[in-house]
Design brief:
Number of strands: 8
Structural class: alpha+beta
Oligomer: single chain
Largest sheet: 5 strands, antiparallel
Number of domains: 1
Strand content: over 45%
Helix content: 10-25%
CATH architecture: Distorted Sandwich
Number of helices: 4
Shape: globular
Length: 177
């Protein structure tokens, strides 16, 4: 909890070198068909070992800067995903300007999305690879489902479900440091 407060106050830049994030798959489990023509997300292989994130959607209206992001984590335990006490609700524009976890830098290279001015029309993210070294340290290892809901003032736009796992870095990696 202290890490989250300090990160939002701009006092802490995360750095971790103790675990790897393995992205398995992503799905757009729901989207508002009155506001978006379509939503297509995937995680294809970029090369033999690295997966990338891709998202394409077409907005019928200008959304503006009022996008909120709700994030809820579920951990795979006893053969099902169970509630995990990581719940975050943030303003997308504010976090975009702060470059939280390096996402603004990543989106600038791979996307036409600007969370401070989401306009009507086609938006994409293509071949995005997050910088997982900027994630918080000391996260519990295991398999996770991360549910990301994009919302407006009083309307939901879409829900993305990310599946992945956190694993310790190999010992050979730790010896190189």
């Amino acid at each position: 909890m202290v890490y989250l407060f300090m990160a939002h106050a701009g006092m802490l830049d995360f750095y971790q070198d103790e675990y790897d994030v393995h992205m398995h798959t992503v799905e757009c489990s729901w989207y508002n068909k009155a506001l978006l023509k379509y939503c297509n997300v995937s995680m294809p292989l970029y090369n033999r070992t690295q997966k990338v994130f891709q998202m394409f959607f077409d907005s019928v209206i200008s959304i503006g800067a009022e996008v909120k992001i709700d994030i809820q984590a579920y951990k795979f335990t006893n053969n099902e995903y169970r509630f995990f006490p990581i719940t975050v609700s943030v303003n997308a524009c504010v976090e975009h300007l702060r470059d939280t976890f390096g996402y603004r830098t990543m989106l600038a290279k791979t996307s036409n999305i600007d969370f401070c001015n989401l306009t009507k029309g086609f938006h994409y993210v293509k071949n995005a690879i997050p910088d997982f070294s900027k994630y918080p340290p000391h996260l519990p290892r295991g398999m996770y489902k991360i549910v990301v809901m994009l919302k407006g003032d009083c309307v939901n736009y879409m829900q993305l479900d990310f599946y992945g796992s956190l694993k310790d870095k190999p010992d050979t990696w730790k010896k190189l440091l």
